[in-house]
Amino acid sequence: APASGLCTGCGRTLDEIARWGGMNDGERTAIMAALPARLKTLAQKALAQKTLAPKKMAHFVNAHQRVQTGR
User: Fold this and answer.
1) What is the model's pTM?
2) Is-contact 12 21, C-beta < 8 A?
3) How far is CA 25 from each of CA 22, 28, 30, 48, 58, rounded to the nearest angstrom?
4) Which long-range contacts (CB under 8 A, 24 or more apart) does 39-48 make?
5) C-alpha–C-alpha distance, residues 36 and 5, integer Å
6) What would the DSSP string read from start to end of 8-66?
7) Are 35 and 67 in contact (CB under 8 A)?
8) Which pLDDT tens digit goes with each residue over 10-39?
């Protein structure tokens, strides 16, 4: 996880990832609703700071698109 504390693959915090299996549907739904904005912010910061290599950026963009489309 970068300095933001968010996984660049899924957009969740390490705590959310660790607790995911024990969360109820409402908690998971709330997190899933926040993911597109989180991933967009991470992508914008990474682009501005040039902190991701092109291959990593492609993976990051694909993950963001999967979250948005629910795939």
Assistant:
1) 0.67
2) no
3) 10, 5, 9, 35, 30
4) 39/11, 39/63, 39/64, 39/67, 40/64, 41/4, 42/2, 42/4, 42/6, 42/8, 42/11, 45/4, 46/2, 46/8
5) 16
6) TTT--BHHHHHHGGG--HHHHHHHHHHHHHHHHHHHHHHHHHT-S-HHHHHHHHHHHHH
7) yes
8) 889 999 999 999 999 999 999 999 998 888
